């Protein structure tokens, strides 16, 4: 197999969905796809009338009371995004759902959902028609009058779908709303891919949402029309008579493949190429499909990808299940994929609409996410409801097959590849060529305690997040826990309600608490004593590069000197004290002041930059004046005596260690004792300390983080780390919705 140019490839590093039947759960969505589970709901006349659907419409001949719906589209986490309840109720639910999907997709990618300044994260999204504005908002004169004209526009207009996400998540790359009807989200993927390859963005979000209010549940079937007669989408089946409208959303996070591999992202699949075109006038009518344009866009995407069609094993089709559309789509595919190669493996067709209905603007990206999951699971999924292939679809002599059950996906020429199509009414066509993710080399990993951080906007959500993360960590392979901890520390927003979890430790308890503004104002001081048992720091040496570097430097400086036991012990205490203090600082602990006593005072001088580690060890080692070079302190140093006199430091080094509280630490600052281990003195609610000294250090850092007293960690702790998919934010389900006139809101809550 010829090597492809990875510099022109784009990685799918994160995904989020809201789909009928599976909600936000990617695993559940895949199970539904794998098993051919139908997510379309059928409603009673009483439900429909209760939602505000006109009674005469419900009773009309040909009315089909079916739609694939989201059960919680009326709910939104307004607190997380700092929206008022009234503004939330006014806003198009499609844009609210997109905002939550963007947050979740970035978290799934292991990237913080609220980006730091200077980022180049782009947003390319679209929405369906804002029927909520027509059916629910405009008739509510009181809400419209209170919001004012501009307020209604800002909350309702499609133009703000992308810029709203960029504003709320501080994303500073291009933010463009894309609108091409049913192909919107796949066109958005193409545009995002192009932005990455032209360096307009370094990370890009792409997707769409289509959600209609309950007033639009159900449709009228017309023979030969687009909508099904019984509420089932039977793509490629002889009984196919139309599609079923559905509500849903999807967002993917994309990066250049070379960047994703460099940065340790999880690559779920690779975009090898994509293309967009329009049918023009080469079709029967404006709404009719155009086989020439469809074939051309697929061929163009394969050419851009430099991929042989014979190596594609699955094509996720537009697959609307209409008597006209399905045969035309297969005819267009055959123009590109029919092969004279005698050993050509069959290429399966897929149709996600048979599971979740036609999600309109979101259809393409949801089909793409389905295909990424198929690549990940190395499985060809079935087409739901397929019993007898449509005889109008000519498959004899073609490379295509219509799978009715899930089966293992065998690679073609050593690789698994797929195509995804989306064709919009009006003729804008899009096709994306996907490839399975490259293999990741196994790495040796130490099994050591890890600090897992969890935060949320409210206590209830923080507790739910803590429960999810704790359960997830319990099921994570020990060798992956460091990556999990890294992902949750660097790939999440830091919110006020927090918990810190130590993995692999039974004597540490995770406690939920809120960032303490008073504690943050007080700050923290370190009291370096050097007290404690000299032995027992092997866990810190094995697990902590900062501590290990300090000890190795000190041992090298002492090597070759004839030391008595007392000098060696003081040297060990000094190295432990300096190493632990440096380790705390490398984990974002910035002390207001350093205090010290005995050997700890000398260690404080080293940490504050008054003297080098070499000079400090010389003080301990030599009986004569070693000629220590003293410098101004870079940190406030609370030491009684003459810090500018080397004799003072020599005397301090000879005093026995003590663990009494520092007398000169400014009140009411919090303080941490650093001896040969770390002991926090924070408040009455501080967590119990584990016996393992490395876990004890991490528990102290976690407690300070919960109080809001730590900054970013030194990147040295993240060398070789990878971002893993981990539990994303459990959005608070609060109802913010303007019901249609005459509707009974309890009807929706009972659904």
UniProtKB/TrEMBL annotation:
CDD domains: PKS (cd00833). SUPFAM superfamilies: FabD/lysophospholipase-like (SSF52151), Thiolase-like (SSF53901). Keywords: Phosphopantetheine, Phosphoprotein, Transferase. Residues 7-436 form the Ketosynthase family 3 (KS3) domain. InterPro entries: Ac_transferase_dom_sf, Acyl_Trfase/lysoPLipase, Ketoacyl_synth_AS, Ketoacyl_synth_C, Ketoacyl_synth_N, PKS_assoc, PKS_Beta-ketoAc_synthase_dom, PKS_NRPS_Biosynth_Enz. The keyword Phosphoprotein applies. Belongs to the thiolase-like superfamily. Beta-ketoacyl-ACP synthases family. This is Beta-ketoacyl synthase N-terminal-like domain-containing protein. It comes from Micromonospora parva.
């Amino acid at each position: 197999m010829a090597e492809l140019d990875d510099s022109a490839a784009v990685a799918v590093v994160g995904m989020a969905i809201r789909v009928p039947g599976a909600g936000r759960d990617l695993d559940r969505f895949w199970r539904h796809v794998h098993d051919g589970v139908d997510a379309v709901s059928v409603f009673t006349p009483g439900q429909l009338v209760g939602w505000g659907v006109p009674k005469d419409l419900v009773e009309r001949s040909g009315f089909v009371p079916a739609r694939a719906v989201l059960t919680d589209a009326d709910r939104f986490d307004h607190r997380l995004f700092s929206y008022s309840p009234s503004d939330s109720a006014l806003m198009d639910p499609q844009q609210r759902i997109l905002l939550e999907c963007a947050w979740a997709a970035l978290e799934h990618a292991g990237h913080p959902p609220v980006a730091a300044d200077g980022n180049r994260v782009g947003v390319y999204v679209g929405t369906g028609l804002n029927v909520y504005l027509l059916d629910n908002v405009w008739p509510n004169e009181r809400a419209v009058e209170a919001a004012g004209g501009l307020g209604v526009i800002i909350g309702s207009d499609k133009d703000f779908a992308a810029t709203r996400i960029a504003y709320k998540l501080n994303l500073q790359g291009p933010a463009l709303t894309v609108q091409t009807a049913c192909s919107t989200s796949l066109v958005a993927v193409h545009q995002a891919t192009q932005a990455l390859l032209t360096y307009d963005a370094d990370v890009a979000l792409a997707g769409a949402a289509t959600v209609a209010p309950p007033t639009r549940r159900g449709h009228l079937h017309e023979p030969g029309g687009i909508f099904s007669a019984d509420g089932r989408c039977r793509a490629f089946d002889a009984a196919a008579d139309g599609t079923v409208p559905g509500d849903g959303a999807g967002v993917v996070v994309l990066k250049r493949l070379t960047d994703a591999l460099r940065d340790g992202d999880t690559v779920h699949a690779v975009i090898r190429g994509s293309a967009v075109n329009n049918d023009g006038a080469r079709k029967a009518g404006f709404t009719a499909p155009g086989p020439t344009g469809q074939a051309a866009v697929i061929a163009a995407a394969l050419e851009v990808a430099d991929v042989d069609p014979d190596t594609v094993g699955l094509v996720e089709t537009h697959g609307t299940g209409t008597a006209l559309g399905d045969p035309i789509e297969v005819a267009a595919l055959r123009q590109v994929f029919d092969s004279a190669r005698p050993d050509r493996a069959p290429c399966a067709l897929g149709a996600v609409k048979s599971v979740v209905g036609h999600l309109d603007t979101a259809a393409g990206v949801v089909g793409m996410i389905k295909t990424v999951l198929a690549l990940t699971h190395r499985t060809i999924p079935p087409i739901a409801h397929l019993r007898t292939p449509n005889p109008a679809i000519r498959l004899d002599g073609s490379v295509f097959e219509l799978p009715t059950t899930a089966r293992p996906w065998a690679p073609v020429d050593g690789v698994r590849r797929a195509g995804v199509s989306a064709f919009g009414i009006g003729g804008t066509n899009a096709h994306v060529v996907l490839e399975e993710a490259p293999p990741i080399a196994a790495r040796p990993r130490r099994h050591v305690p890890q600090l897992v951080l969890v935060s949320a906007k409210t206590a209830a959500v923080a507790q739910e997040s803590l429960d999810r993360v704790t359960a997830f960590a319990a099921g994570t392979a020990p060798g992956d826990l460091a990556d999990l901890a890294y992902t949750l520390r660097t790939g999440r927003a830091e919110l006020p309600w927090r918990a810190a979890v130590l993995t692999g430790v039974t004597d540490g308890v995770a406690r939920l608490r809120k960032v303490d503004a008073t504690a943050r104002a007080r700050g923290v001081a370190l009291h370096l004593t050097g007290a404690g048992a000299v032995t027992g720091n092997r866990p810190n040496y094995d697990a902590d590069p900062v501590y290990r570097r300090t000890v190795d430097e000190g041992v090298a400086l002492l090597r070759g000197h004839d030391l008595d036991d007392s000098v060696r012990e003081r040297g060990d205490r000094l190295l432990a004290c300096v190493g632990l203090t440096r380790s705390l600082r490398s984990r974002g602990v910035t002390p207001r002041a350093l205090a010290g006593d005995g050997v700890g005072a000398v260690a404080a001088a080293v940490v504050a930059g008054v003297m080098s580690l070499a000079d400090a060890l010389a003080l301990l080692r030599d009986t004569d004046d070693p000629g220590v070079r003293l410098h101004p302190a870079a940190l406030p140093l609370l030491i009684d005596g003459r810090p500018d006199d080397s004799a003072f430091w020599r005397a301090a080094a000879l005093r026995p260690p003590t663990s009494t509280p520092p007398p000169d630490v400014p009140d009411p600052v919090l303080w941490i004792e650093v001896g040969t281990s770390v002991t926090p003195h924070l408040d009455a609610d501080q967590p119990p300390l584990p016996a393992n000294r490395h876990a004890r250090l991490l528990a102290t850092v976690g407690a300070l983080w919960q109080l809001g007293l730590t900054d970013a960690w030194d990147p040295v702790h993240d060398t070789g780390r990878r971002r893993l998919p981990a539990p994303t934010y459990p959005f608070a389900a609060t109802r913010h919705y303007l019901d249609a006139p005459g509707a009974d809101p309890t009807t929706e809550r009972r659904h």
